Amino acid sequence: MLIDFAFISGEECIKINASHAGTTSMGTTSAAETGTSMFMRVGSAAFYGAASFLITVVNKTVLTTYHFPSYQVLGIGQMAATIVILYISKRLGLLDFPRLDSSVFRKIWPLPLIYIGNLVFGLGGTKELSLPMLTVLRRFSILMTMIGELVFLSIKPSAAVQVSVYTMIAGAMIAASNDLAFSPIGYTFVLLNDAFTASNGVCMKKKLDSAELGKHGLMFYNALFMLVPAAILAWITGDLDSAYAYNGWDNIFFLVQFSASCVMGCVLTYTIILCTLHNSALTTTVIGCLKNVCVTYLGMIIGGDYVFSWVNFIGINVSVAGSLLYSWVTFKRPDKPYPHI
Question: How does residue 337 score in pLDDT terms, banded at 50, 70 and 90?
Fold first, then answer.
């Protein structure tokens, strides 16, 4: 059926035939929107991958190369930097988020608890394990995220996505079966970090979809609500005393790396939220593991704590291949969410 489609100019309405011009206009708009959406998807994922890569290397340097004893204090520094940067940015009018009131905690819960667990166990695992094994074991967070999206968001991944995830997990299990530098504490920390990462991705997707606090509000209040509990925990465990007694505070190179880690913590949190907003929680999790393609091989040099074995090395490469496969499957798909079931 032919419909008159009106374009309003400054003088009058000009009617044209929609079977020709209307379709063209809508097609152009659709193409433009699709292009912009694809740019935001890929751009936010790349931004997150770069930030995640940099902070992993910096954290490893601070905790292992410089032997900083307290990963909890490093986490507190990252939370404090997030609060200061966002508060100053809000005061300068560079960004905005809702004011603190009695409803904010209800709106954001349980993200603060997940946030602190993710931060503490992530830094603890970074300290205890070599970067190659850390990055391989982090791939279990992808499986947990996929299950979480299926259970809580009713999002069913495609068969290709499932194959790529299972490939990553198989590689991780092969690598772990012959880890000559096995650390039970490190493995426990990383697997707990995986669980918190999966929970964070799924919960954050639901909070972002509700659009009550926005991405900056989630960042600010996550850090604000958990800063004092984290400081109390560090004091109880003796981490504050260990950090105070550390003899590297007069080393300018250490201070630069420590400061960079604190600032990058804020940047990383922002990129996680941005990537989750424009992609799925599973995509955000896998991008975090995909950057480990670089970290995995670089980590065999950085830190000096990787012990080579052929079985371990083959497992790492299988897991990396799964990460590459998932990235290809994800970003070649049409710009639409996974099917709901």
Answer: very low
